[in-house]
Amino acid sequence: MKINQKLVPFVLLLLIVSCSGLDDDSYETVQFDQIAEQVNTIRLEVDALGATIRYREHLNGFLILDGSANKIYLFSDSGTLLHEVGGPGQGPGEFTSITSITSDEEGRIFAYDGPMWRLSIFDHSGNYTRSFQMNEAFRMHDMVYANGLLYTFSGFTHDELPFHISAINPENGMIVNQFMETSDIVKELGIPISGALQHINLFDDKIIVTHPLELSTYFFDLEGSLLTIHQGNSSIYKEPDPDSYTIPAPLYTALPALIASSRPAQAKYFIEFMELNPEDSRGNFLEIFDKDGNKLSADPISIGFKELMHVNQYGDLLFLERATEDQEPRINIYSIN
Prior knowledge:
Elements lengths: L7 H9 L13 E2 H4 E8 L9 E6 L2 E6 L4 E5 L5 E6 L11 E6 L5 E5 L4 E5 L5 E6 L4 E9 L2 E8 L6 E7 L4 E8 L2 H6 L10 E4 L2 E6 L4 E5 L5 E6 L25 E8 L4 E8 L7 E7 L10 E4 L2 E5 L5 E5 L8 E7 L1
Parallel strand pairs: 1-22
Antiparallel strand pairs: 2-25, 3-4, 4-5, 5-6, 7-8, 8-9, 9-10, 11-12, 12-13, 13-14, 15-16, 16-17, 17-18, 19-20, 20-21, 21-22, 23-24, 24-25
């Protein structure tokens, strides 16, 4: 399958659409089928997937975290189920609640159990090898592997440690670096940055995280130095009003939309997936930016209620379609024209 990775026609198409005089309920959008086409479908050999899922690439295919079942599924590239990793429980290799997964170039699988404060390691076939007990104040919500370290978006239950990205040595479970302090707007809101960040990703050898309360994406090098901050400016979301918050408060109540995550692709561009309030009939949207943070689309890209899981190295967008009575779960793959 040959995939067209050239962005020039895509950019020209999106820039044709103008955006003027927009408010929360009236705005121009680009329909997803105008700029992308479906190129493949992967049927997953499982009966169902729970509400909380996470996708990660793997040496032998890909991983899907099923938070409802407290399992990690290892699939081949074609969707064949190779191994089930973990399961509910408190013993070695078991989970009470998996909050994040990733893998390295050897195929080792790393998984974090939030309530147990435990980082578990499995080999490339999903066999449990060992685990590390983390500090009970440590909360690991998502992680990626790069340059021999696990980079994790981490929150803490107290104010003594204001850093919220941690680099962990997977050979001994020790934190070797921490960076990204709580931002001013979140201090004003009275909740930590960890209450807003959803995902951490590796993009073009940079660590990127998106903060939906600030509507901004942070780019760091692997040593933790801040490189740039990209400020979102979509017409379908707006900056939060601190006076509208009560603590704790669901993010959905304060924003017409939020940037749920930054999904990296190839080094040419990255994608921000915006998930609206579930009661909002407008569905979900994408914004696409180049590696310098410049928005390539003049208007938000409407994807209906598709659930974006991942953007692969070719720039293909992977959407999850959940199981129905007569069909197993599937991943629909789209290529940008």
